[in-house]
Amino acid sequence: MNATLIYEGKAKKVFATENPGQVLVEFKDDATAFNGQKKGQIAGKGVINAKISTHLFRLLESHNIMTHFVDQPSERVLLVKRLRMVPLEVVVRNIVAGSLKQRTGLAEGTSLAFPVVEFYFKNDELGDPLLNDDHIRAMNLASSDLTSRLKHEARHINDILQNYLNDRGLLLVDFKLEFGMADGVLQLGDEISPDTCRLWDRSSGKKLDKDRFRQD
Ligand code: TMP
Predict the structure, then answer these.
(1) C-alpha–C-alpha distance, residues 93 and 57, integer Å
(2) Residue 28 gets which letter from DSSP?
(3) 3-class SS at 188?
(4) From ligand 1's centre to the CA of 2, what distance in Å?
(5) What residue segments make up the domains of the chain, in order of their start?
(6) Cα–Cα distance list, 93 to 29, 112, 151 (Å)
(7) Run of H or E residues at 47
(8) Taking the CA of residue 124 as centre, how many other CA atoms within 13 Å lie in the half-sphere pointing to its CB?
């Protein structure tokens, strides 16, 4: 792209636009896992993740969830609102997998009695550690009001995505969201794709997400 690069992350590049309130996000084919220790390329991943994110942001918007999504100008690029990001990853879990299995010893595939919401501190040097509400407040990362709004919004988004995917034969095991503020309003940012969700085929149990890369 010709635009000015503002930021390059592990899976995306962010470019400025003429509108200071909007940026372009390009989805790369690069894949990383374990805080960048494992690196690879998955041909076509960027295009698919941009397409799935666009589809799911539009779905959420149709349910009155505020998101940063504005438009999809090309196959691997989204036009989005520029957000002031909350430095937290918000994870929602419906079924045990990944780090919850490691932390609790519960068997992979165990259904949780209710959706479990977790917060992780976005900090590569620390390896994005798990935080509780008190840590978040003590570190001044978010007020307790904002923390409870994040939980509420994440559970609402889970209800919408779970219903939608379930009707299409997919189990939404868990997923990660990132939020930010624009014009004083909390909005969903980042992406929603198989890089940031665990999705299992309901009948075969086949993994249809980035765990295929994480686990070779
Ligand atoms: P976890 O089980 O490894 O904690 O992952 C929980 C969910 O969050 C899973 O759907 C993958 C997603 N995730 C990300 O999107 N980015 C990350 O850096 C990590 C660790 C997980």
Answers:
(1) 19
(2) P
(3) strand
(4) 32
(5) 5-81, 84-214
(6) 26, 8, 12
(7) helix 45-62
(8) 7
Q: Are 113 and 196 in contact, with CB atoms under 8 Å apart?
A: no
Distance from C-alpha of 108 to C-alpha of 93, rounded to nearest angstrom: 12
Give 171's contacts (C-beta < 8 A, 6+ positions apart): 94, 95, 165, 199, 200, 201, 202
Phi, psi of 12 (to 5 degrees): -145, 155
Looking at residue 167, what is its pLDDT?
98
Residue 59 has phi, psi (to 5 degrees) of -60, -50
DSSP string spanning 105-119? -PPTTPEEEEEEEEE
pLDDT, residue 44, reads 97
Name the CATH code of domain 84-214 (choices 3.40.50.300, 3.30.2130.10, 1.10.540.10, 3.30.470.20). Answer: 3.30.470.20
Q: What residues of the chain score a pLDDT lower than 70?
A: none
Ligand 1 within 6 A of 197 CB? yes
Q: Name the CATH superfamily for 5-81.
A: Phosphorylase Kinase; domain 1 (3.30.200.20)
Atom of ligand 1 nearest to the CA of 210: 11
| Torsion angle in degrees (nearest 10) through CA of 109, 94, 197, 160 | 140
175 lines ligand 1 (CB under 6 A): yes
